[in-house]
Amino acid sequence: MGVRSSFKYAILTILAAATFGSACQTPQSTSTQTLLPTTFFPSGIAAFVTDVKAIASASSTDGSQKPGHTAAGSASLTVTASGQANVVSNGGSLVALHGSAPFNKVFVSLANAGATVDGFWEVDLPAAMTDQTVLVRFVASLPAANFDLHFQVASAAGVVSQQNVISETVTSDSTTLLPQVTASYSPSPVPFSGGSPCVATGELGCLWEFKVMIQEFNGIAVNAATLNETYTFTSGETLSRSVPIIIGGASTSTVIRTLACEAATVSCVPADELAGGTYTYFVGGTDINGNNFSFTGPTLVLLGR
């Protein structure tokens, strides 16, 4: 009996110690704020974005990926970002930026579930401007259904704007997307061919020959489109044509343009027009979802004789 009493006493002592210990713990928070679980991406913003570049009339400027986070920003410089709300994996988004004052840097960062992801993209522009379009390219498989793109700009004096946010929803429904296209030329500027046979077509008396390249990023083709082009010569004379084209989805479509005399001479063009000029175009049509599509290409310089 003596052993049993000692055993019971030992148990009661342990329970009392446990109760005493719990009474000294910090009380639980009574906050009703919802806790938001977040996911850490070891590769930072690279888990979402593969590239950011500034799109200009004659060329583009590639951005560079940086570690860490951007500055909080000042209210003395503001930026407005306009772009699509729905995006697709392996696609892209063209975002138009407008600053309250000239800027020469663009910053793109990202937040997931309210938490800023490590890293950002910086684009150093060749010149200060108040309006700039940037292309944001996404990875092949976006890791979150929703995320926020944050855009900031910086002036030459180093003033950084506050963030302007576009909330993105990842979709697999192509009918909610619009074609996202950029355009370029090859070569640019275009040299005067001097009347030699055109390389692509073999036409004689070639004056200018070049490629119009239109790249689409969202997989939305434009199968019924018209390229309306205008050659404007330094003399003030113009030449306009319309060409039916197809813009492939998630691919680069190439249209070869030539201007030739169709004879081994350059006499089909007045001497004052041989000084060169510019080439511009406008594309209008309907995409595969039945939406109206329009796009104005950049200006191409035609070098003179």
Task: Present the secondary structure layout.
Layout: H1 2-23, E1 49-55, E2 60-62, E3 64-66, E4 79-82, E5 86-87, E6 92-112, E7 115-116, E8 120-138, E9 146-154, E10 164-170, E11 181-186, E12 206-216, E13 222-233, E14 238-247, E15 252-260, E16 276-286, E17 292-296, E18 300-303
Parallel strand pairs: 5-10
Antiparallel strand pairs: 1-2, 1-8, 3-8, 4-6, 6-7, 6-8, 6-9, 9-10, 11-12, 12-15, 13-14, 13-16, 16-17, 16-18
Q: What count of domains describes the coordinates?
A: 2
CATH architecture of the largest domain: Sandwich
Q: Encode the helix/strand succession as letters.
A: HEEEEEEEEEEEEEEEEEE
Q: Please give the alpha-carbon distance between the first and last residues.
A: 120 Å
SSE class: mainly beta
Helix content: under 10%
Average pLDDT figure: 89
CATH topology of the largest domain: Immunoglobulin-like
Give the overall silhouette.
elongated
Oligomer: single chain
Counting DSSP E segments of at least 2 residues, the number of strands comes to 18
CATH top level assignment of the largest domain: Mainly Beta
Main sheet: strands, sense, barrel: 10 strands, mixed
Low-confidence stretches: 1-24
Supply the number of helical segments.
1
How much strand?
over 45%
Radius of gyration: 30 Å
